[in-house]
Specification:
about 25% strand, 6 helices
């Protein structure tokens, strides 16, 4: 019997914040507990159209229709956090229902599904809320039985990758690449000190903004990449200088091991349009 070839592509999405009025929501009614329906806003429908374009067109194009691994890199649900009032429901079972509606079809398409734990403020202490979601979706557990694992070491066609949710942030565009690059250098330094293999690529999320401070060589892309997210601006974003200056970045990435190009990162990033301008001209 011919052996099935191992996947050569990893699809990474993150930060859907389902359950928030600005988070990812299917383009249809989702029934919450007590028979209350949840419906998407006009902007959520726009984000959903990009979610569908990413999974239905971009991913098959980059992976060439071959089997792929799916990694959700944290903050699937919005949770009850910081005294916020932007949730569709603060019942976490309702938020999980919305997240399952969004993620389950994509999990079914994947050869293997991994779920990385996000921020405790959103997914509970020790990611207890995200653990329930990851278990329900059938995420592959780590060696300690955690379905929402804190990180993932992955070897893809002999290329070593480290995936985790958190990365340092900044409110200044000039320094967006600093924290991811510093973290990659830390991995390389630690590997050298202990005579271990350094990752070729580290993947991070959390910031909802894409950046790719990588270099390309004979083995393809190396360094660090940060994924965009799937959440629109919340009141917290309007407090931040960089958040006020730019519009939300929506999208995900595909990491692919090509036969001749080595490891490379293909990013789908869409920046939402500016709101309507109030015009008073002569």
């Amino acid at each position: 019997m011919k052996r099935r070839p191992a996947p050569r592509s990893v699809v990474v999405v993150s930060d859907t914040h389902c359950g928030c009025r600005m988070g990812l929501h299917p383009d249809r009614e989702v029934m919450l507990q007590g028979g209350k329906p949840s419906l998407p806003s006009v902007l959520q429908r726009k984000v959903w159209s990009h979610w569908r374009h990413f999974h239905d067109e971009f991913v098959p194009s980059v992976t060439k229709g071959e089997p792929h691994i799916l990694v959700f890199n944290g903050d699937a649900m919005d949770g009850r956090h910081h005294g916020s009032t932007t949730q569709v429901s603060q019942n976490l079972a309702d938020q999980q229902s919305i997240a399952e509606e969004c993620l389950r079809p994509e999990v079914k398409k994947a050869e293997t599904y991994y779920h990385i734990a996000g921020t405790e403020a959103h997914v509970g202490p020790s990611a207890e809320d995200e653990e329930r979601l990851a278990r329900a979706l059938g995420a592959r557990p780590d060696s300690e039985g955690q379905h929402a694992r804190p990180f993932l070491w992955l070897e893809l066609a002999h290329h070593l990758i480290h995936i985790a949710h958190h990365v340092g942030g900044t409110s200044a565009r000039a320094y967006e690449m600093t924290a991811p690059h510093r973290e990659y250098i830390e991995f390389c330094g630690d590997a050298g000190q202990w005579n271990r293999r350094a990752p070729q690529l580290i993947v991070r999320s959390h910031r909802h903004r894409h950046c790719k401070p990588t270099s390309s060589g004979a083995w393809g892309d190396s360094g660090a990449v940060v994924t965009p997210g799937w959440q629109l601006k919340t009141p917290f974003v309007h407090r931040i200088m960089g958040g006020r200056a730019s519009e939300p970045q929506i999208g995900g990435i595909v990491v692919r091991a090509g036969s001749r190009l080595g490891l490379y990162v293909a990013a789908y990033v869409y920046q939402m349009e500016r709101p309507e301008v109030e015009v008073f001209n002569d």
